[in-house]
Amino acid sequence: MEPNSRIETLDPLAGPDSRVLILGTAPGALAMQSGEYFAHPRNQFWRLLFAVFETSSAVSYQEKMKFLQARGIALWEVLESCERIGSSDSAIRNERPNDVPRFLAQHPRIRHVFFDSRAAKKFYQKYHPLLDTIEYGLLPSPSPAYASMTFEQKLEKWKAVRLAADSLPQLQAGR
């Protein structure tokens, strides 16, 4: 990615039964190239979620999307666009936020929001108030650059996603 080039976020991934939202900061370079969330092969996002739900890994991106939807998990980014060289959150400049409060209003079943890094939480709080109707959580970054925790240590923290998803009622057929 060239210096000072502006990157735009990916579209949010959410279904009618979304009960949990995981917010990243902004898509990395490979995610932008592929149009797929967490596309870097060393990023632990998908591995962590599959381990949390004790299921085998999905092969295709479409299978991953079905996996998320079946568990009521939505994905999006805190930032609508920014300037950044590479994929490091510390390199973000001139950011513009997504309208996450409006997204939450459009998805009223979402009651838990998890930030997948401290940077995601920092940018969210810079632009949006924490809502009383939402429970917020901070997860250790799945990025390969965040190496101060082992996979197993990260997994223990990421289990909060399953607890949140399992604790909320799912849509019943016919509603």
TrEMBL record:
It holds the Pfam family UDG. Coiled coil: none annotated. SUPFAM superfamilies: Uracil-DNA glycosylase-like (SSF52141). The keyword Glycoprotein does not apply. It comes from the Bacteria. One of its GO terms (molecular function) is DNA-deoxyinosine glycosylase activity. Keywords: Glycosidase, Hydrolase. Residues 11-162 form the Uracil-DNA glycosylase-like domain. The keyword Glycoprotein does not apply. This is DNA-deoxyinosine glycosylase.
